[in-house]
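Duplicate of #3305? Posting structure anyway:
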């Protein structure tokens, strides 16, 4: 990918990416997306930035959720039930960020205590007949996933940038990004504080304000921020869905 040089929601990105996303912005005002395992809505916000309204589902209360509607429920049980009831008809697509602790590098022990929702989730998503995306960490068992790097999407704060590589599988063709370095230092947004590696390289703890700016997220608490993907990632990925491309044509 070449140097970022155009703007989407104030963020510098590669020009073709900016053109595609700016063309989409606002064309989906009446379309609803379902965001499974939404937490406070990092992925949701990226879909809203494309113009969608979003219904989030999480099995924990999410008082800071930024979407348009929230349902507290088990994601897989809800998906199966709403399919039975025909309630998925109001959605044009599904985003799923199933929990990553089973595969995340930061999980030190007890991986096996965290369930794999990706495998049963994929089966259910396929049954819905809707376009869908699953997002997760690099070691997760996604099929033929593409990678997105924060540097490619302008996720920066001062001389800090995110790398925050995330993987995406969809039932439509996807293009990811390269790993792109656009700032001298990397900021990690994980857990409850700053990883010692990050402190060692920078000689200081990155401030929460810097993390928020790089993530493009200002409405969550610290833990929700660590769980999130930058909205720029879900905008970039969902802008490639055929349903999105057709709407923007
Ligand atoms: C990695 S976070 C999602 C982050 C979100 N995509 C974002 O960008 O902000 C995973 C979320 O899944 C939720 N979760 C875990 N198991 C669940 C289940 N069985 N059903 C619904 N939500 C679940 C957790 O409460 C957590 O909020």
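Output from current build:
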């Amino acid at each position: 990918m070449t140097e970022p040089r155009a703007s989407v929601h104030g963020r510098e990105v590669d020009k073709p990416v900016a053109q595609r996303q700016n063309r989409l912005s606002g064309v989906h005002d009446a379309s609803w997306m379902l965001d499974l395992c939404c937490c406070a809505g990092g992925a949701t916000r990226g879909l809203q930035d494309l113009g969608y309204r979003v219904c989030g589902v999480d099995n924990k209360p999410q008082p800071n959720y930024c979407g348009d509607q929230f349902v507290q429920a088990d994601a897989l049980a809800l998906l199966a039930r709403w399919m039975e009831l025909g309630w998925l008809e109001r959605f044009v697509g599904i985003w799923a960020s199933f929990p990553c602790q089973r595969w995340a590098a930061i999980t030190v022990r007890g991986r096996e205590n965290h369930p794999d929702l990706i495998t049963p989730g994929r089966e259910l998503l396929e049954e819905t007949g809707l376009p869908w995306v699953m997002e997760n960490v690099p070691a997760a068992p996604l099929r033929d996933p593409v990678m997105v790097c924060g540097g490619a999407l302008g996720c920066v704060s001062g001389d800090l940038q995110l790398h925050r590589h995330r993987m995406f599988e969809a039932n439509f063709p996807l293009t990811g990004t390269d790993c792109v370095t656009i700032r001298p230092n990397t900021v990690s947004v994980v857990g409850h504080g700053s990883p010692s590696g990050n402190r060692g390289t920078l000689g200081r703890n990155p401030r929460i304000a810097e993390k928020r700016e790089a993530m493009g997220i200002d409405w969550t608490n610290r833990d929700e921020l660590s769980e999130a993907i930058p909205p720029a990632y879900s905008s970039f990925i969902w802008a490639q869905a055929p349903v999105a491309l057709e709407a923007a044509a």
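Confirmed duplicate; merging threads. The longest strand covers residues 53-58. Residues 37-43, 57-60, 74-75, 97, 99-100, 227-229 surround S-adenosylmethionine (CB under 6 Å).
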